[in-house]
Amino acid sequence: MYYFGKGTEQNYTKSFEYCQLTAQQGDSDAQFTLGIMYEKGKGTEQNYAEAYKYYKLAAKQGNSDAQVNLGILYQNGDGVEKNYAKAFEYIAAAAELGNATGQCNLGDLYYFGKGVEQSYIKSIEYYKLAAEQGDSDAQFSLGLMYEDGEGTEQNYTEAYKYYKLAAVQGHSGAQNNLELMQENGFGIKK
Hints:
Radius of gyration: 19 Å
Pfam family, one: Sel1
Structural class: mainly alpha
CATH superfamily of the largest domain: Tetratricopeptide repeat domain
InterPro entries: Sel1-like, Sel1_AlgK, TPR-like_helical_dom_sf
CATH architecture of the largest domain: Alpha Horseshoe
Largest sheet: none
CATH class of the largest domain: Mainly Alpha
CATH topology of the largest domain: Serine Threonine Protein Phosphatase 5, Tetratricopeptide repeat
Number of strands: 0
Protein name: Sel1 repeat
Organism: Snodgrassella alvi SCGC AB-598-J21
Oligomer: single chain
């Protein structure tokens, strides 16, 4: 309630206090929220080591959002040594649980070959899973891959479709690419 200001004034300090109490009782959502608060420095001092600790506790209970955030800590080297193999491990676990952000990030790891052998085919597979759940970053990435013919035949109609899905959600990169496609007549049936 206090974290989002639902039904009361937003207060990160109070939210932090209540989350600590609930997290100590083993609540994975509270542990995840504490991880965010430590990572972002909301209601407390920024502390990546504590963020890692609480994400890990929540992830052990199957909290897929915590698994994604743990993976991102490893990806960026925030509070832990940068380790793409570990990032892949946590993000893949979240993706397998159906977490759209995890699926999109897993698509990125496959696309760039970070922590896993590079594969445009696998990248498309995970981007599609996330895109079907409405993830605008995944939709944008699919648009790029279809436009450039990476891992698939070049297909301007598909690129246009995915850019449009992301653009409607306010994705600025997709809005820009959609505008360029419209100006040049790509992906539009005449």
